[in-house]
Amino acid sequence: SQGVWEPWSAQAVARYQAQGRPVLVDFTASWCLSCQVNERVALDQPSVQKAFQDANVALLKADWTRGDDAITQTLASLGRSGVPAYALYVPGQSQPQMLPEALTPGVVIDAVHQLPH
Q1: Element (H, E) at 36
Q2: 34: which of 64, 103, 104, 115 lies 20 to 30 Å off by Cα?
């Protein structure tokens, strides 16, 4: 990873939302194979990273490897019971947009391009 991912916390999401920045949360775990694949084939691709940078998207990684309770509760609030899950918080919207569980660069870039400018 390019080192742009920060550890997830509800406070971090709220802070970036207050700044009017879009936020992508990558709910992942070291034992989740499809999570690793999505990160390699989509999220860490240069074209996707460039789209994130161009749109000023804050990138947060919610590491559920040890079953963190706060992450479990957040996943449940998003209607998910596990990982992978990808939540794109759009400025001005209270509920995030959920990306598919199987990512491609195109899917992610399209979602980023639809963000309000």
Answers
A1: helix 33-38
A2: 115
